[in-house]
Amino acid sequence: MASPQFPYAVYDTTFGGSAYCGTIMSVTSNGTLSNVEQDYVHSTSSSVHGLALSPDQQILYSPDDSGNAVWTHCVNQTTGALTYVTKLSGPVTGADPRHVAVHPSGQYMYVVLEGSNELGIYEIDAARPTDPTK
């Protein structure tokens, strides 16, 4: 997933098996990938399948299918680097968050819960955007 705003960082995550990490890559002025800026780890039991940025590009949300959670990271606005904030547990055991989207207003996060075959709707508190509640 590419950030649509400067510094146009590209966020990547691997899925399945022992893939529990992600990579952030910088982009040159002509749009090509430049350097690996940061590697980061979720947990050894994670399988992050999708990513979503908040509309203001300050928070990255990562649904973790096998970890039954959504990870939140703050995005450094200068470098695109991530800082871990929290891991939100799924609403029930086996919910298995798989895909995530954030409403353009930044007030809601929608999470496809593959295991429970539901759509989770989380309200994002503007005062605490890294810690949405269901």
Model description:
The chain is an all-beta fold. Helix content is 0%, strand content 46%. It contains no helices and 10 strands. The protein has strands at residues 10-13, 21-27, 33-41, 52-53, 59-64, 69-75, 82-89, 97-102, 108-113, 118-123. The protein has a 4-stranded antiparallel β-sheet, with no helix packed on it. Strands 1-2-3 form a 3-stranded antiparallel β-sheet, with no helix packed on it. The chain has a 3-stranded antiparallel β-sheet with strand order 8-9-10, with no helix packed on it. Strand 9 (108-113) and strand 10 (118-123) form a beta hairpin. It is globular. The model has no long low-confidence stretch (mean pLDDT 88).
